[in-house]
Amino acid sequence: MQKKAVALRYHQEEDRAPRVVASGKGIVAENIIETGEAAGVYIQEDRDMVELLAQIELNQEIPMELYGAVSEILSFVYKVNGKYEK
């Protein structure tokens, strides 16, 4: 099975909702993950969520139906980031 990855961006001041900024499989997915890791971005593994998010066109906001699931991930990420920030 090929690796898949989707990257989201959310700037509270600019975006109404998170948007898909990168999506791919195989080597593209590996590059997305490596770029995120190099930038210190938290990587969440969730195959079902990736399948849903991969259907969204690049630079499009996620649909309202995914707000709940994505907000849980973002909430966890913010907690993790706050825990390790100095």
UniProtKB/TrEMBL annotation:
A GO cellular component entry from the record: plasma membrane
Keyword check for Transferase: no
InterPro entries listed in its UniProt record: T3SS_substrate_exporter, T3SS_substrate_exporter_C
Statement: the UniProt record of this protein carries the keyword 4Fe-4S: no
SUPFAM superfamilies associated with the record: EscU C-terminal domain-like
UniProt KW keywords: Cell projection, Cilium, Flagellum
GO terms, biological process: protein secretion
Pfam families the UniProt entry points to: Bac_export_2
Top-level taxon of the source organism: Bacteria
Similarity-based family: Belongs to the type III secretion exporter family.
Protein's name in the database: Related to flagellar biosynthetic protein (FlhB)
